Amino acid sequence: MNLSQMASSQRAELLKQHYNDNLAINLNSDEIYHYQDNVWKPISDKVLKRTLVELFEQSGEPYNPMRITSAVDSLQLSLPAMGEPQKG
Question: Which of 44, 6, 38, 11 is nearest to 22 (CA)?
Fold first, then answer.
């Protein structure tokens, strides 16, 4: 399936996979964190959006800002909260 044909939740899952499923959200701040080098590092929505744009460009597919934003919004809703164990 092409990126441009995916639902927002599917693009969010692709973005999560890009970060090796090492993402979580701080429910107090709604900030997303990436677990890297044994440390949780904040990652801005802008960086997530630009990363998704890169994935679109790598695949040679068109994108628009609304689809990019909706994927990041879906990602925020689907991530485990920091401090909670992930469901396997």
Answer: 38
pLDDT per residue as tens digits for the range 23-46: 999 999 999 999 999 999 999 999
**Nearest-CA neighbor of 12 among 48, 66, 43?**
48
Helix axes 8-18 and 65-78, enclosed angle (nearest 10) = 70
Closest CA to 16 of 28, 33, 1: 33
What global pTM score does this model have? 0.86
- Give the C-alpha distances (Å, rounded to integers) separating 34 from 5, 49, 75, 77: 27, 14, 13, 15
